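wait is this the right file?? whatever heres the structure
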């Protein structure tokens, strides 16, 4: 027998010894390991039953991307740019909020403050309350009811007169907004152009309400951004049209009164005065007509600039909870218990 064969026999014997040691170890410490695994599994069951339920509601939108005649004339160049991963539609939306900025809108402070003040219907209690109150009540755990938090809460503002013209939040409001930013998630798929809004809340109806309110806020924000300039122009032209109409009516009345009072006069001064009044009348009439035309065009422009959001998947009330994953929690706790039992048994054997 050469040295190589002796080494192979020796390694096989070592393996057999190690496996037998493992079997012996499990036999002698199996009860302890099983107790730890069972105890942690029971703890996992209790935790899974007491853990707060979470429901997730989602909706899918397809926003309108600005399409210009220039893009249509590009033809093959637009197709090649698409193959290269370049979206020429987004590159030409200079006068609109790009869809890839929509997540920033729903993660902003104004949106959080807007959402906290919205009324929601809670199916669990069959009551209507603000989202701020709902999250505040759900944030109070059973531990806080037994051991109340004695930390002082911020009640006074540092700038009560708003002299800085800046937002100032209390600690409670800041915590609620941070929680909202984790619960309301918006994603934008650059390839398909689809926007997905997910809202996760402890109540199914509240989750659907928050998702729908998020859609409404996003639509209103984008619409306001794109049409603000046109709406201001409509407002300005509306005021000018009213003034021009008064001027036109006054000029018309003055010309009519003058002609009524001077029908039988052939004086040159009367003719000159009539020509002057008629010129003022024509000028006021042309100004009124031009402003009226611009006013109507501005109103049409507001409708043209108003974006269109097509709903691919409407907001629905979830029927099943998304969290907690009770099976995974129990299995995870059980595995941790087994690991703890093995670790304790090894330490006792070593000591």
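ok assuming it is, sequence goes like this
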């Amino acid at each position: 027998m050469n040295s190589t064969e002796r080494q192979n026999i020796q390694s096989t014997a070592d393996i057999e010894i190690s496996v037998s040691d493992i079997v012996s170890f499990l036999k002698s410490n199996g009860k302890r390991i099983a107790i730890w695994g069972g105890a942690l599994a029971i703890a996992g069951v209790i935790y899974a039953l007491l853990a707060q339920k979470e429901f997730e509601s989602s909706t899918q939108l397809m926003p309108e991307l600005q399409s210009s005649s220039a893009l249509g004339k590009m033809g093959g160049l637009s197709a090649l740019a698409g193959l290269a991963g370049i979206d020429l539609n987004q590159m030409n939306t200079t006068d609109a909020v790009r869809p890839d900025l929509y997540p920033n809108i729903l993660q902003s402070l104004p949106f959080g403050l807007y959402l906290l003040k919205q009324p929601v219907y809670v199916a669990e209690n069959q009551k209507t309350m603000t989202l701020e109150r709902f999250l505040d009540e759900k944030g109070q755990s059973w531990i806080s009811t037994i051991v109340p938090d004695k930390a002082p809460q911020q009640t006074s503002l540092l700038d009560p007169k708003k002299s800085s013209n800046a937002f100032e939040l209390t600690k409670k409001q800041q915590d609620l907004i941070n929680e909202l930013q984790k619960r309301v998630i918006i994603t934008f798929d650059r390839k398909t152009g689809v926007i997905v809004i997910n809202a996760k809340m402890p109540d199914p109806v509240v989750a659907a309400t928050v998702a729908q309110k998020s859609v409404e806020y996003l639509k209103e924000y984008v619409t306001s951004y794109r049409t603000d300039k046109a709406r201001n122009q409509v407002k300005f032209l509306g005021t000018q049209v009213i003034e021009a109409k008064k001027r036109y009516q006054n000029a018309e009345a003055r010309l009519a009164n003058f002609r009524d009072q001077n029908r039988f006069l052939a004086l040159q001064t009367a003719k000159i005065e009539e020509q002057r009044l008629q010129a003022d009348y024509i000028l006021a009439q042309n100004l009124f007509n031009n402003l009226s035309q611009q006013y109507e065009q501005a109103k049409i422009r507001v409708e043209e600039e108003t974006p269109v959001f097509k709903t691919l998947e409407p907001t629905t009330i979830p029927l099943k909870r998304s969290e907690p994953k009770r099976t995974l929690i129990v299995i995870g706790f059980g595995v941790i218990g087994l690991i703890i039992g093995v670790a304790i048994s090894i330490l006792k054997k070593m000591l």
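Residues 233-302 form one domain. so i think its the right one actually
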